[in-house]
Design goal:
With 538 residues, the chain is α/β, with parallel strands linked by helices. Helices cover 40% and strands 16% of the residues. The chain has two domains: 77-238, NAD(P)-binding Rossmann-like Domain (Rossmann fold, 3-Layer(aba) Sandwich), CATH 3.40.50.720; 242-277 and 315-478 and 506-537, Dihydrodipicolinate Reductase, domain 2 (2-Layer Sandwich), CATH 3.30.360. It has helices at 3-52, 56-59, 86-95, 100-112, 118-123, 140-151, 170-174, 191-200, 215-228, 242-252, 290-293, 307-314, 325-342, 431-435, 461-468, 483-497, 505-524; strands at 77-82, 130-136, 165-166, 181-184, 204-207, 232-234, 259-267, 349-355, 368-375, 380-387, 396-400, 403-407, 419-423, 446-448, 474-476, 479-481, 528-531, 536-537. The strands form three sheets. A ten-stranded mixed beta sheet has the order 14-13-12-11-7-10-9-8-17-18.
Length: 538
């Protein structure tokens, strides 16, 4: 071996020995490093568990909201529908009846789009053990649809036991002693008269919102329902939305802290969303009972049948003679939701402003409208803001000193999308947790999202809006269910069992009075006060 080779070998050996020593030293430190990382992982895990358990008392509530018992062996009920328009058709589907046209279209859409669950949701409904035996509508075409629905064998429970008879006037339907209950889905100006007459005839009533067109009518309906003892349900299907039960529990536990402000919004930006609905080609003086339609309208405001009458018949929500405007039509949904969650009841004061700023089509119902409800005894103000010319997703907020609940996740307004709870930077309740990093106020500390992806099957602008408000679908044990079906079921079982449904006449009056207060403020240009002793607006 040459001297050069010897020198190279010595150098290599030297570095080998060095590497060996460094390796031994490194191995000696591994337990410490390992212990460090194990300790760090354990801390991170503990922090994660602490964060996940921050509101563990809420998430422990795994049980779905209570629903009524199975109706399979219960008393068979015979129902009638008065007013078979768009909402009437949905209510009848909730009871288990759909037209062949609807089932054919829904099943075809489901075949084309696996996310469209409307047909599956309908067919998976419980058979409510009812027959649709009476239909009354002032438009012959709609009456025929109601009869078709009553006969349709493509439904939960299969072939119906009975089919519907068409009645020309609602009083004829009410005179049938074999009919147990009626669904009232007419324009608002007919609600009070039909509900009162039905109650006097001993019929149980499911009435669509708003309860009545005027404040005085609301008091009359309330008194009649109480006096006759019938089972009454107002059509606020949000009473069945699962997220609202969770939200109510959060409020009850004080996790938002003192609540002084609630913000509610409605945002639409389409002619359909502004009630500019199509005029049916079969609508004419022979097929529409225009004279009867106008009966509740002051004589001075009645008009002869013609082009304007057709507009008003199919787009009735645009005029105060027939509807309740943004207050009774849209605000009522959100108000009832907040009343369900927070038990706020009737406000002491209401004031509102707005106007017809975008839809210059002859309507007198505003398309931009704001209302303020004041509850001095609760240290609470509820704000409502609506526009029919913007879809900006502002969301609904329950604002507490310690945290804010955003209904509809990050941006949407409806409880169908669940909600998030985010701590306030200046929170007293969560101050220590914020300071030690357990709560980051930039992110939700609690969220609830009940299967909102399934909403992809909804297509129309109005349907999307209703879906955002929780009116189309909710969830029970992970399964999608139509809240309208649950609401109809709740009413029917209250009839059978003798209890009170979730949106009974007591809570119906809360919504009605609050909405009428805001409407009267707009019409009179002043603040309106509720006198609970004398049951008057002053």
């Amino acid at each position: 071996m040459s001297q050069q080779e010897k020198n190279k070998k010595e150098v290599n050996q030297k570095y080998t020995d060095l590497d060996r020593r460094e390796l031994i030293k490194g191995l000696a430190t591994l337990p410490a490093i390992a212990a460090f990382f194990v300790s760090l992982w354990a801390k991170l895990r503990r922090d994660a568990i602490k964060k996940s358990n921050l509101l563990q008392d809420l998430v422990q509530e795994k049980q779905a909201p209570p629903i009524v018992a199975s109706t399979g062996n219960s008393e068979h009920l015979r129902i009638g529908i008065i007013g078979y328009g768009g909402r009437g058709g949905h209510l009848v589907r909730g009871a288990g009846f759909a037209t062949p046209g609807w089932t054919d279209l829904a099943s075809e859409n489901a075949r084309k789009n696996r996310l469209d669950k409307r047909f599956a949701t309908f067919m998976q409904q419980e058979d409510l053990n009812v027959s649709l035996v009476g239909v009354c509508d002032l438009f012959d075409f709609r009456s025929d649809l109601g009869v078709q629905a009553s006969k349709n064998e493509v439904r939960p429970g299969g072939k119906p036991k009975e089919t519907a008879t068409v009645y020309q006037h609602y009083t004829d339907l009410l005179s049938n002693d074999d009919i147990d209950a009626v669904i009232v889905a007419t324009p608002d100006h007919w609600h009070s008269r039909i509900t009162i007459d039905a109650a006097k005839a001993g019929k149980h009533v499911y009435c669509e919102k708003g309860l009545t067109r005027t404040f005085d009518e609301a008091i009359d309906v309330y008194d009649t329902v109480k006096r006759t003892g019938i089972t009454f349900q107002l059509g606020h299907q949000n009473r069945q939305v699962e997220a609202n039960y969770k939200a109510k529990r959060i409020i009850e536990q004080g996790l938002l802290g003192p609540i002084n402000m609630v913000e509610l919004t409605t945002n639409r930006n389409s002619p359909w969303g502004a009630w500019v609905w199509g005029i049916h080609p079969d609508g004419n003086e022979r097929t529409i009972d225009w004279k009867t339609f106008q009966e509740p309208v002051p004589i001075k405001n009645r008009i002869p049948f013609g082009e304007e009458a057709l507009r008003r018949f199919f787009r009735w929500r645009c005029w105060f003679d027939y509807g309740t405007g943004l207050s009774g039509d849209l605000l009522s949904h959100d108000f009832d939701t907040i009343n369900q969650i927070m038990d706020i009841g009737i406000p002491k004061y209401a004031s509102s402003t707005g106007g017809v700023y975008f839809y210059k089509d002859g309507r007198d119902v505003p398309d931009v409208w704001n209302a303020t409800f004041e509850y001095p005894d609760k240290d609470l103000t509820v704000l409502y803001s609506a526009t029919l010319s913007s879809n900006n997703p502002r969301g609904n907020r329950i604002m507490g000193h310690d945290a804010t609940m955003m209904m509809g996740g990050q941006s949407g307004g409806g409880s169908i999308h669940g909600f998030i709870v985010t701590a306030d930077d200046a929170s007293t309740q969560y101050k220590e947790r914020i300071e030690n990093g357990m709560i980051n106020t930039r992110y939700p500390m609690y969220s609830y999202a009940p299967g909102s992806k399934q909403i992809d099957g909804v297509t129309s602008a109005t349907s999307k809006y209703f879906a955002s408000k929780g009116l189309l679908y909710t969830y029970r044990d992970g399964k999608r269910v139509d809240p309208t079906h649950l609401h109809i079921k709740d009413w029917l079982e209250a009839i059978r069992m003798g209890g009170q449904p979730k949106c009974n006449i007591e809570v119906a009056l809360h919504e009605a009075v609050a909405c009428h207060m805001a409407t009267e403020s707009y019409l009179q240009g002043r603040r309106i006060e509720w006198d609970p002793v004398n049951r008057k607006l002053i």
